[in-house]
Amino acid sequence: MLYRYKITPKSPLMTPLMSDTFFGHFCWAIRYKEGEAYLSDFLNLYGEGKVAPVIFSSAFLTGQIPRPSLPSPNRDQIRAFVHNHFGEDKKNKLEGLSKIKKWSKRRFVTLDQWSKLKDDYSVIKLYEYFAAEKDEPRKTEIKEVVAANTINRLTGTVPEEGGGGLFQRETVWYYKDICLDLYVEINAPEIASQVNWFLTKYLPQNGFGADKSVGMGHLSIEQDESFDEKDYSVENPNARISLSLAAFSGMEKYRASYNLTTKFGKLGGDYAFSSPTGGNPRPFKKPILMYEPGAVFLCSESFSNKPLLAEVHSDQKIRHCGIPITLPFRLNEESYATAAA
């Protein structure tokens, strides 16, 4: 079943609210609560052909989901759209083209737009809704990039070699009363209470991501009782949109339209300062190439039966979750053909 939770940030965030990070936090939470054996049994439930007990989406502004990552309309479609909505006058044409250029950079659609488009989706139809909007999307966050130094934990000082270990960090500040949506797919009913405890108790008490100990990543989370999974159903879907970072074995077999990102993962919990197998800490995972949320898979099947990614760390028991939550929808024939080309 699919659930939705409401997240209200109570402090700045140093770590983006991404699906794989939620999964990692959940694993450490049940490890601390139930023990190593419980976590091991839980992870063994993931595997090729096994239905994942729980998977997370990334978090999005309330009332929005990622816009499907699909090819732009062709010139004839854009020309006709500009003619119909802005007219033939040269000045109006330029205004129309400028608007489309701006719309092409928008990364999200509203749930109202999605409900109207999900049974016969095309980019041109989405532009119709963008054109009808009276207000520009409001700004919801401020991103601040600051410089920081690496600190030697033994001496408590900045290393003199290598320029002092200078690096940049991004902090996200959300405007007051901003709320975010997190989707959770639970396929093992016996784990539902653990997931609810993790989201509504553990994360608010312990924080999310980096610098939790100095007040970053403080969240208020509650289950959205008004959510109804049936609102997202589609008859005869021919595509699925991902709400998560996606990377799983065999993903290259599926035709898809997507944007890529490289995830430089880092181990959390105890492994952030101690090695899983003893010796010096090895917190960094190997770089992982992933589809960003909004990736469109040109098929109707869910991917909840895919395995966790292996060989992402020098310790072979470490794995990474790239299993995505996906929503079904139907691309119109022309859009499907373009995406499949």
Mean pLDDT: 89
**Shape verdict:** globular
Taking the alpha carbons of the first and last residues, their distance comes to: 33 Å
The count of domains is: 2
Write the layout of secondary structure elements.
Blueprint: E1 2-9, H1 19-34, H2 36-43, E2 54-61, E3 64-66, H3 75-86, H4 90-103, E4 108-110, H5 111-117, H6 123-132, E5 141-149, E6 166-174, E7 180-186, H7 192-206, E8 219-223, E9 239-242, E10 256-257, E11 260-263, E12 288-291, E13 296-297, E14 326-329, H8 333-340
Antiparallel strand pairs: 1-7, 1-8, 2-7, 3-4, 5-6, 9-13, 9-14, 10-13, 11-12
What does this structure look like?
The protein has 341 residues and is α+β, with helices and mostly antiparallel strands. It folds into two domains: 2-66 and 175-340, no CATH class; 141-174, no CATH class. 26% of the residues lie in helices and 21% in strands. The chain has eight helices and 14 strands. The protein has a four-stranded antiparallel β-sheet. A four-stranded antiparallel β-sheet has the order 10-13-9-14, covered by helices on one side. It has a two-stranded antiparallel ribbon with strand order 3-4. The two termini are 33 Å apart.
TL;DR of this structure?
With about 350 residues, the chain is an alpha+beta fold. About 25% of the residues lie in helices and about 20% in strands.
